[in-house]
Amino acid sequence: MQTRIMQTNEESLALAKEIIEAGGLVAFPTETVYGLGANALNEDACRKIFVVKGRPNDNPLIVHVHRDYDISSLVTAIPEYAWRLRKAYLPGPLTMVFKSLGTVCPAVSCGLDTVAIRVPSNPKAQEFLRYVDLPVAAPSANISKHVSPTSAEHVLADFNGLIPLILDGGECTGGIESTVLDCTGPVPVVLRSGLVTREMVAAVAGDCRVHIPVAGEKVRSPGMKYSHYSPRCRTALYTEENISAAVARYDAECAKGAAVSFICLDETAQKLGSRRCLNIGRTAEEGARNLYRMLREGEKELDMIIGIAPAGRDGVMAGLMNRFEKACGGVYEES
Questions:
Q1: What are phi and psi of 99, to 5 degrees?
Q2: CB-based contact 34:149 (threshold 8 Å)
Q3: How far is CA 171 from the centre of its chain?
Q4: Is the pTM of this model over 0.85?
Q5: What is the residue-level pLDDT of the chain in tens, covering all 335 positions?
Q6: How far apart are CA 312 and CA 268, in angstroms?
Q7: Cα–Cα separations (whole angstroms), residue 230 to 28, 72, 118, 149, 188
Q8: Using CA atoms in the order 71, 72, 75, 80, what is the torsion angle rounded to 10 degrees?
Q9: Which residues touch 14 (CB under 8 Å, ≥6 apart)?
Q10: Which letter, b or e, does each residue of 235-254 get, where b requires 16 or more Cβ atoms within 10 Å of its Cβ?
Q11: C-beta of residue 138 within 8 angstroms of C-beta of residue 40
């Protein structure tokens, strides 16, 4: 199969619609990362996503729709606070989980009675979704557990020859996946942190909680259970407080002849002297925008990436920390 990268225009949108309606897969840009889309009403099409990505079949998909799509055709009761959140933050990097009406195919929800709905703000995504005018199930357009893609070239690197079309929308501006919010109860609950923060949700909804995983529970949202976002090289993870141990590890690896780099925010990078560093920026927002791009650049030539995690846990930093930790193995080194 030939994989084509095309700018989003009348020709490519017509081709995308033809592919989606025929049960095929199309990669498309959003403001967060690129998605790998299929008709959410077509069971066979959605199962192709799991096969092509190598995705575990208990990891549910998010359904993407354009801003004027009637989601009441997909979900049952919508709490009043969800309408307020939709008005405040959609289109945007927020996914809301509702009780499913059973309209989308079973593969989307992986046996759950819920469905996750997202209205991306990226203009090219909106053009695509409006042109297709179907609910499009789409996880990130990368091989499962690999670093998520923030450019069409990243998608091609993972799926060249496996999918027919990538709609090119340039670099993603957000850089990490959407916030996922459980809206099935009286109070919204964050299942996955992102650019729409818990604090932002609480300011509109009146309250917002954060889900605490329980051993053995079903995966309720993408990004909750499995390791994700990993570069194709060795990784190690250290806290800012343990930076001396991180430096010792770096020096020891270099002495063995390994190509090594740190990855961290700018404030930490300034403490590392002349040692190689993938500097993801000064703020949480910059870090989110640059993290995946830097990881993909680094994996091309490095034997090891050593993460030094930023200290904050509030706001956008919560989402950045979630991705940062998973990308670097999720277990902090002590020495």
A1: -65, 135
A2: yes
A3: 14
A4: yes
A5: 899 999 999 999 999 999 999 999 999 999 999 999 999 999 999 999 999 999 988 889 999 999 999 999 999 989 999 999 999 999 999 999 999 999 999 999 998 999 999 999 999 999 999 999 999 999 999 999 999 999 999 999 999 999 999 999 999 999 999 999 999 999 999 999 999 999 999 999 999 999 887 665 666 666 555 566 899 999 999 999 999 999 999 999 999 999 999 999 999 999 999 999 999 999 999 999 999 999 999 999 999 999 999 887 889 999 999 999 999 988 899 86
A6: 13
A7: 21, 36, 24, 12, 29
A8: 100
A9: 131
A10: bbbbbbebbebbbebbeebe
A11: no
Size of the chain, expressed as the number of residues it contains: 335
Question: What is the rounded CA–CA span in Å between residue 181 and residue 178?
Answer: 9
